Every structure is written in C-alpha cells, then in structure tokens.
Amino acid sequence: MAAQMSKQPALDVGTTKFTAPVKKIFDSQGTYDFQSSLAISRLNFFLRKYVQMVKKQKICHDPSNVPAVNSFVQLLSSLSALIDQTPPLAGPRRYGNLACRDWHSKVDSSLSKLLEDLLPQNDQRCIVELKYYLGNSFGSSTRLDYGTGHELSFLAVIGALDMLGFWTENITGQDILLIFDTYYKLVRRLILTYTLEPAGSHGVWGLDDHFHLAYILGSSQWSNDPKTPISPRDITNVDLVQGYADSNLYCQAINFIYKVKSGPFSEHSSMLYDIATTVHTWSKVQSGLLKMYAVEVLNKFPVVQHFWFGTGFYPWIDIKSGKELPVYENSTEIEREEELRTTQGPTISLANAPPITSATYHLPPGSGHTGSRLPVVNAIPSKSSMRPTMGPPTSRLFSNRSNTASPTLYQSPKGDETAH
Length: 420
Known about the structure:
16 helices, single chain, 43% helix, mainly alpha
C-alpha cells in the first residue's frame, strides 16, 4: 500500500529545484513503484486533508474571504470563457469535437501568464511544474477525452498551491468546495460542448464515466452529520438529487448523470445504484470510495501513466530511501494501452456481456456526434450473477474491514507478494 505522511508537506521555493514534469510510468511495474513514491504520499495527504475539511460543509457560491481563493476561481472562470470563444465545429464527428483542440491551444498559450498573475513573484519558479498539472486537468487534446486521471491532476494543482502556502491558514472547507465546484462546472461544460469521451472508463461496471473524486468529497460533506438531509438511498430520487445539486458535490455528479443518460439508473449506473441500495450511511460511502480510489485510480496503469513527475511538487523518489525510483521505458504495454484503455484492468471481461439496451446519452442539439462510444451506453442489467469482478467487491470496499483490496491487487508484477 502507498506510504502515508502525517505532516503537511511544505516547499521552500528558493531552495527547491523545479523542472518540467516528465513521464516515468511506462508499465505495471512503474505503477507498482508509484505506490512507494513521495509523489503519491503527498497526493494522498492532500486528498485526506480536503476530505476532512469539507465534512458538514455546503457549497457556497458567494466569494471567499480568502483573496487567493477568489483569484484562483477567477482563473478557472477565464478558462471557461474561452469555451464561449471556441464553439464546436459543425458536422458529424466519430469521437470528440475537434474544436476542443483549439480550446486546449488557447489554454496552453495563456496558462503561464495566468499563473504569473496568480502567484507572488517569489513563487514563480514553480510555474514550470504547476502549468503542466493545471493544463492536464481538463482532458486530453490528443484523445479528446476526460477521466479520473485528469481529475487527479487537478487535485495535484490544489495540493501544490497548498505546499507553497498560497491558500493561507484561513482557508475553509467551503473554500475547497468553491474551488472544486468551479472546476467541475468547467469540466462538465467541456464534456457537453465538445462531446468528450470517457478516459479509460469501465463502462457501466465503473463508478462513473468521468469522475471519482467528486463522489468522495460529496459523500464527505454529509459524513457523520446527524442533520444530513438525505440518505445514500435517496439518490435514486431525481427530484431530491436536483434539489441538493447546488450544495453537494455527490448530488451534483449524480444530477449530471440524470441529465446526460436515460434508461433505468440501475442499468446505466449499476455501481452507484448498488452503493445507494446497500450502503446505508454517508460515512461508509466515503470510506468505501476512498478505498476504491486507491485501487481503481491510483493503482491503475491506464490512469496513472499520464501523471508525470517533476522534481519539486511530486518527485519520482522513494519516500523511505529518498532515492530516485527506477524507470522502465521498454514496455509493450505502451503500445497496447490505446487499444485497451477502455477495458484494461485485472477485472473486466466483456465476453459474456448481455445485449445493449436503449439507455443513451442526451447530447446538446447540433453536437454532430455520431460515434458509438460516447452517445450509447452499454446498459447491462444489474444482476450479481452477471457482473464481472472489478477490483474488490463493492460489499467489501464499503464494509468496516480495514483491507482495501485482495492481496493479488498489490502483488508485484515480478511475483513479490509483499504489499507496499
């Protein structure tokens, strides 16, 4: 398992060397080594920090009392405005709309200046790393997709700014929610405007086509709160979900699903339906989703191969020894990744999948999207006898047991069964 740190990491910009992030994870061995890196330890620290901060908090849409938060929200808003300046191209498209690449080009050309305006002069040496993680937070301009790896990059941005002391000690859980709420609104605009595909999605057997962190933060908002207005089971009630979508990230994510998909919720979102009907408290939902995140996001090659490493914020070094981790560049997995990226993992089998039902995405008029992968959902009946094993069973992830996965999920590719 990934090593944990208990103390807030902080960086001295004056003495820390920052370099443009580069690719280090080329295969499953790299994914395995990632679990013992300083980078993942820092990511896990900030994940758990923000999960704790948002407990019993609502999304507040008013400006923050922390100027740095408002400045960052304004930066995201300026990127959203670029969507208005970059309308989707007309005509049919098999995959995502190519205008999205123009949007990414505009973002890439403006990020350095936006970050220079955001950061104090003394902190600007880190922009070479920060702009990579921020630029990678909005999907791939090459594959025209968005998924949990891009969501992870945004977490890296917020954590990096935290390491700089940018947020100050006055930042609150509501500020964290305001930042993520602004980010998710921008990303959902991108998905709908440019019909972005799911990146590495497990289809109906996955948690969500695009997001995971949103569900962790949203469930944490209601975790251990005796005044929680709804229970996990209530997310099958469309009206209730819509009513709380403005104040809770979990409902916001579910509401997006209701907007873009049709058909029974139990078919097109079977894992979310199972959580709703079998997990009875938000605290258990949150803890189960954290366990799932460790297995299905942070420990999956198709996801973390796109997380690159600099020498400042998220270095590729062993957290215990302080030495640089090995890099294995010669791997057939690189060549196979594009072909398998929607189904890869130790867990998914489509061989016995039942026929497709009528569940479909509702895309904006004139989107011109004709491909079969984004508009059509393989809605498979949620029957336990038909389900392929996808990581640890849902019941185990959301139980009180401390283990997060079966031992085989943490075996070294070389056969070493010792967990990190």
